[in-house]
Amino acid sequence: MKKTKMILGLSLVAISGLILVAADHIDAPATMSGDALDITDVYAFQGQNANNLVFAVNTQGLLSPNATGAATFKDNVMVEINIDNNGDNVEDLVIQAIKRDDKMYFFGPVAPGTTGTSSTVKTAAASGSVTISQYGATALTAEQNGMKFFAGPRDDPFFFDLGQFQAILGGTATGFKNPGTDTFAGTNVMSIVVEVPKSMLGSSSTVGVWAETKKKQ
Predict the structure, then answer these.
(1) Which helix (H) or strand (E) holds 19?
(2) Is the CB of residue 83 less than 8 Å from the CB of residue 90?
(3) Which residues form the signal peptide (predicted)?
(4) Contacts of residue 56, Cβ cutoff 8 Å, sequence gap at least 6
(5) Considering the entire predicted model, what is its pTM?
(6) Cα dist from 166 to 22, 79, 172, 173, 187, whole Å
(7) Measured between alpha carbons, how far is 184 from 163 in angstroms, rounded to an integer?
(8) Element (H, E) at 167
(9) Whether 159 contacts 136, CB under 8 Å
(10) pLDDT in tens, 168-208
């Protein structure tokens, strides 16, 4: 299980194009519990509708085009987006995503049954579902209860010049190139995206956001 955290100010997202992101493309082998559990990136940004906030959680990084077609979400892994809206670094709301057959089912935003590393599925707070998109096919989205949903493979949007970064660390370069070389070009991720009206997230002008993957016990 991996937790990635970032802080998002709702008062700031009115700035056009603002994206906040936390990234970690692969865990050390000793700490990984399977690629379906490995979170590469967490994004939060204002939707095209300024009244909405979009959350995106990407997993299973560094997928080649050949590997992407066989990549799947796992039925026994839940992706949970945690939202702290009172500044105490404890989740007040969660959005849960769970795969069943060819669909991804979403629950929340709703108060969690428990906080921390253990979770219960909030089945009474079902918010919608979407058919999981297939690699190479048209992306499928769904809209229910004022929310929008997507699940499936996507081109990895994260840009990083790993070679130049290593050169900087090794003392053979003093800074990044412009333009640099995108180390992740041509690789894909498995992505879960949910767009939520801000009104569902509480009245605070600032929220903390982090994501977890949790395996059924």
Answers:
(1) strand 19-23
(2) no
(3) 1-22
(4) 41, 42, 43, 44, 191, 192, 193
(5) 0.85
(6) 20, 32, 9, 9, 20
(7) 11
(8) helix 162-170
(9) no
(10) 999 999 999 999 999 889 999 999 999 999 999 998 888 89
